[in-house]
Design brief:
Order of helices and strands: EEHHHHEHHEHEEHEHHEEHHHHHHEH
Largest sheet: 4 strands, antiparallel
Helix content: 40-55%
Strand content: 5-15%
Number of helices: 17
Distance between the termini: 69 Å
Shape: extended
Strand order of the largest sheet: 4-3-6-5
Structural class: alpha+beta
CATH architecture of the domain at 135-238: Roll
Oligomer: single chain
CATH class of the domain at 135-238: Alpha Beta
Length: 484
């Protein structure tokens, strides 16, 4: 069985514009500090000065937080690089978990799924003909637009017209002429001609109807999200089997393997009695925007979904959302309960597979783990070099820590001014913070915003536009909105 390829260095992806780490949880004696990382402090005044230097960056709390988080990421990365240029002082085990889990699940499927992939040419040709792959039709259609939630009166009226046009077409009326006159699709000027297309190119109801027709036949009225259609197939063509045999054989084998996998997973998970716990949807929505949340002990072990032999927990979910891009995380709070149910069910099924793989004694060999770590450390070093955070040298009279702070501040200033690109750290950011300590103090954010606004020149008030004086004997113009 072909194993899925794992992207080893998916760690560096998605700008870390998350909310604050341990926001409001830790108190500091220094009220002029916005963020702290590895013993370094980012002062309120310094942050305001850096952001104010670029008038195109708005003075907003989320911008201040994003800058503070990027400063923490860079400060921690620079500190780690200064202590070990190979970056081997950064712990990667948590970051390797999704990769290793995927690999042992792949091994599980190899072990338990056995598929007969031997197909004779005769069997393959029969499958080819039945599948419709390689077949295209050229069709015309008439579209009468109608919303899926159209009122009954509108639905009745449009359906009546569609039925009438279908009957006329079936009696021999010129279909192209009918399309030009009645169709509301962009193809109307061409007599409704859509050219050749295969099944995958149209919405399912349309394709199913079209591919059942032989040349010259007219469909019944077909409803899609766009409205009601009448379809006439003009031509059919199928690629020569011999010309696509090799490619189709691969597709047919892949289909058999996929079906066997789905059958195994369904059998395994359907008997697991998966149950979403009360309150799980609210927790997912709340944590969706808080990937910085550090859940430990009982909080981390709180169950979101239970199944025979285990559970999908808050800790599991936090690890998952930290691997997502910010824009992906942002969609979770907007999901319906039904969508979240499907999501949590899927996450539980994935964990059941991992548990089953471990029961089977499947592991990732030490040599493979070493290879993964080596590759990630190598790319970490490259990313640190690209961010300009390696080989930071103290200037005269500077300590190493002072040099790091000066250099990181300079790099952040360059990013804010648009002079260089940010190197996002993705999930690595959270590992660095847990290992080297980093936090943003929310109470300082409004002060930064106020100082940015104060540092920028005030926009000159616009002079009022003089209005013409009313002429004698005429009433002043009514400046209220005119109703149409």
């Amino acid at each position: 069985m072909t194993k899925k390829t794992v992207a080893v260095f998916a760690l560096i992806g998605g700008l870390t514009t998350t909310a604050c780490d341990s926001i409001g949880q830790a108190m500091t004696a220094h009220t002029d500090v916005l963020a702290r990382a590895a013993g370094h402090e980012l002062k309120i005044d310094k942050t305001a000065t850096m952001i104010a230097a670029n008038p195109q960056i708005p003075a907003q709390p989320d911008v201040v937080v994003a800058v503070a988080n990027l400063w923490i990421d860079y400060m921690l990365l620079a500190t780690a690089a200064s202590r070990d240029s190979t970056m081997h002082n950064i712990k990667l085990d948590e970051l390797l978990v999704p990769i290793t889990e995927q690999e042992i699940v792949s091994k599980l499927r190899d072990k338990v799924i056995h598929v007969d992939t031997a197909l004779t040419d005769e069997q393959l040709k029969k499958l080819y003909e039945e599948s419709g792959v390689g077949t295209q039709v050229r069709a015309r259609h008439i579209l009468l637009k109608m919303s899926p939630d159209a009122p009954p009166a509108v639905r009745d009226s449009v359906t009546k017209l569609a039925t009438q046009l279908r009957d006329e077409a079936r009696k021999g009326a010129d279909f192209a002429a009918l399309a030009k006159k009645y169709s509301q699709d962009t193809s109307a000027p061409q007599g409704g001609d859509l050219g050749f297309f295969d099944k995958s190119q149209m919405v399912a109801p349309f394709s199913e109807a079209a591919f059942k027709l032989q040349p010259g036949q007219v469909s019944d009225v077909v409803e899609t999200p766009y409205g009601l259609h009448i379809i006439k197939v003009e031509e059919r063509k199928t690629a020569n089997f011999d010309s696509v045999k090799v490619q189709f054989r691969q597709q047919a084998i892949a289909q058999r393997v996929q079906e066997a996998e789905q059958s195994y997973v369904k059998k395994l998970t359907d008997s697991a009695d998966i149950k979403v716990k009360d309150g799980a949807y609210a927790i997912v929505k709340d944590l969706g925007n808080k990937p910085e949340t550090s859940a430990k002990g009982r909080a981390a072990n709180r169950e979101l979904v239970t199944f025979k032999g285990g559970a999908y927990t808050v800790g599991d979910f936090i690890e998952f959302i930290r691997r997502l891009q910010p824009q992906q995380r942002a969609t979770l709070p907007q999901r319906s309960d039904e969508e979240l149910k499907g999501f949590l069910d899927g996450m539980a099924r994935n964990k059941i597979l991992v548990v089953e793989a471990k029961k089977e004694g499947l592991t990732v060999p030490p040599a493979r783990m070493d290879s993964l770590r080596t590759e990630i450390y190598k790319q970490l070093a490259q990313a640190t070099q690209a961010a300009g955070l390696r080989n930071i040298q103290p200037q005269a009279g500077e300590s190493k820590d002072q040099a790091i702070e000066r250099h990181v501040n300079s790099v952040i200033e360059g990013i804010i001014k648009g002079e260089q690109n940010a190197i996002p750290l993705g999930p690595l950011s959270y590992s660095l913070r847990e290992q080297f300590d980093g936090e943003v103090f929310e109470r300082s954010v409004p002060q930064v915003v106020a100082k940015i606004e104060a540092a920028r020149p005030k926009a000159a008030p616009q002079a009022p536009v003089p209005q013409p004086l009313p002429q004698p004997g005429t009433p002043p113009k009514d400046t209220t909105t005119t109703k149409h």
